[in-house]
Amino acid sequence: MAEQRRISLHEAGHALVAEHVRPGSVATVTILSRGDTLGYVRQTVDDEAAYLQTKQQIQEQLWVLLAGAVAEDLTLGSRSTGASGDFQKAIELARRYVLAGMSPLGIVDESVLAKDEFHRAQQALLQEVETAVRSYLTEHMPILRQVAAKLQQDERIAGSCLRELIATPVSA
Hints:
Elements: H1 2-21, E1 26-30, E2 40-43, H2 55-76, H3 84-99, H4 115-139, H5 141-154, E3 156-158, H6 159-167
Helix pairs in contact: 1-2, 1-5, 2-3, 2-4, 3-4
């Protein structure tokens, strides 16, 4: 039961943030395992498949990717290994962001950029996004808990149901 609660909070974090950065984008949220995932959020917009991505699109994806772990941390006081796949995707996106000249470093040549400088640029981006996601989820904690409870109860909710939950005022 504790594992199901953690997965529900994790996926609720992803879903809530996905709806924040891209309203109407969540098609389904589930805590039913599929392949090597314990749960997932299916979105109607798939920026990962796009060859060209804007700075905003990458930042939005990073928000969604980090939201599950941040939700676990805020509600349960720690993260789990369930976020490792999200982190790997976030690291790759941060890498693309830096290499595309979107970081404060500007246009860079990876072959001459010191590894620690490259790493610091990636970390700065990821920490900035994590701080913003933490602030957003803290502000919307009652909704996060409500979505997680619904997920734990029903195991799967449609995007339309998620949006109804978000629109319904919740007492803290």
